[in-house]
């Protein structure tokens, strides 16, 4: 051990749990694991083996134990609960920190003796039976967690409304992108973009929540522009076939790129970024676009307005006309694009960093060391819940 290497934290291991992920949650857990390990905190990551193959949690210095939690409820959830219990039995767990509703439910059913923290990353948008089951799971998770952390204010409100004893805001910082490896001209040449053609970029999982159908329908209208913009979407997911069929039927100038690891390069080549989701908390691509100085059009949903402020053009969700109008206004006015890019960079400069996120979590874990039991739902004489009610003076991560 060198002088620069912190001694391992004697208070135990932080267990990070997640379900199947190909995007933001997996990136966030990897970022947190790396930051905690660098601070001397032993970390055990539990999640699907395929998710570990993509994010290499062991590469952060954490240990990894497979716990197969799929993106949707299955009968195999009982095996996941058993696997988590087995992993915890062999670990001196300081805290169990689950990320997402699915991981939170498995953790709640496993009933760990260590304090349970659950970060709410997504809202429940499903309807029908799946939606009802998900809302039931929300209630179980909210009432089982010692602390519920919401990635956006609406998630904090949701957790509190469902009975969370202590609900707080804990913004998720996008991991910093590496510097682009290719020049702007090289990136644009890959997609056959002429010097005077705009390149419009969107990045995210191909899932109905992302509403890429709205982007495709708007892009179909841009065929008549001279020169017509080139629209590329980076990401993979279950909506690929339906989107490809829609693109073909609409003759939209949209190319689905599949999974990409060169988002920094794509942003370097882009003139405009677009997010058309029905809901987002602090979408990583929106953060990446503003940091890179790429003008952004995004839907005014979830945590996006509080994230981007005046650093992006906001449009209503599901509104093809609004997306069309916003994109055209920016493509037609280089001065407006430049001004929006400057405001976006200024907005991003005030966001919490990965280091800030890790520092907030470390402070929370220390708070739980002094009040590990934290009677759920306990209120003091003033009707307050959480640290103030239990008499601790640990730092708050946001609203409660």
Could you characterize what this model shows?
The structure is a single chain. By secondary structure, the protein is an alpha/beta fold. The protein folds into two domains: 13-173 and 354-390, Rossmann fold (3-Layer(aba) Sandwich); 184-349, Glycogen Phosphorylase B (Rossmann fold, 3-Layer(aba) Sandwich), CATH 3.40.50.2000. 42% of the residues lie in helices and 15% in strands. The chain has 16 helices and 13 strands. The strands form two sheets. It has a seven-stranded parallel β-sheet with strand order 3-2-1-4-5-6-7, with helices on both faces. Helix 8 links the parallel strand 8 and strand 9. Helix 7 packs across helix 10. The protein is globular. The chain starts with 12 loop residues before the first strand and ends in a 10-residue tail after the last helix. The relative contact order is 0.11. Residues 375-400 have low confidence and may be disordered.
Short description:
With 400 residues, the chain is α/β, with parallel strands linked by helices. It has helices at 24-38, 49-55, 77-89, 101-110, 128-144, 153-161, 184-190, 212-220, 240-250, 263-269, 284-291, 304-308, 320-331, 334-349, 354-370, 387-390; strands at residues 13-18, 43-47, 63-66, 93-99, 116-120, 147-150, 167-169, 199-203, 230-234, 254-258, 272-275, 296-299, 313-315.
